[in-house]
Amino acid sequence: MAEASGRFSPGIIDYDSVSVRYQRGRALSESTAKTWSAVVAPFVRGSTQPRILDLGAGTGRFADLLATSLDAAVIGVEPSTGMLAVAARYTKPRNVAYVAGMAERIPLGDSTCDLAWLSHVWHHIRDHQACAHDLRRVLRPAGHVLVRGTFGDCLDGFPTLFQFWPAARSICEQLPIVGETVAVFERCGFSLKDHQRIEQETAAGLGEFAQRARSRADSALMLIPDSEFDAGQAAIERAAAAESLPVPVVELIEFLVFRSAGES
After folding, report:
1. How far is CA 25 from CA 121, 147, 159, 212, 213, in A?
2. Sheet holding 190-203, edge to edge
3. pTM of the entire structure?
């Protein structure tokens, strides 16, 4: 795990060491899976087995979801061999494949994908310009890039996280902001078509949220001091024990839609 430096920078998280526990802490809840499947579906509607690039696929949590719920051929590109090894342990749909590769040099041919999906990966990419340029290359004309993530200027959607781990907010404030992200894509031939805030039920209650947090698989929780993580974990465990009727933990996730130039 990365040293708790209090500073975020692309590449600071060692995902090879995090990979074993990542799936426990970041697995999609049934509600979250349904939410995002419905969000993505309109972008492939009418296509016969569209080809989706899952860039920064991690352990394959979204690759599997998109392949099964949308009947899409999904290629997961991931730089961490540890994350890919975890993905390989699970039985994957026949229409999912994984390949090692970097976001700045995507190991796919020109005009080979209909859609690119980036989930909580944008802030981990070292060279945003190179990534957006290569996304333009691998997408077919009028293809879409869907960016799901956390941005440094849109942090009011995580009240539970910041209530118990206030130091995590200062980490998140260091992430890229929306305006900078839009500017990068526009310079590379994309246009912003939509910016939504998607409400997702991350956990059924504080108990489930606390259980996920124990894995410390969230970048912000990895980078705060151990003492602050432990104090927050103890506090949420107490709150969960006192919760007689679980209240769902709802978060707001930023969702940016970009389209490349070409026939609409």
Report:
1. 16, 21, 18, 4, 6
2. 96-100, 73-78, 51-55, 113-119, 139-149, 249-260, 190-203
3. 0.94
Q: What would the pLDDT profile of 133-189 be if each residue is shown by its tens digit? A: 999 999 999 999 999 999 999 999 999 999 999 999 999 999 999 999 999 999 999
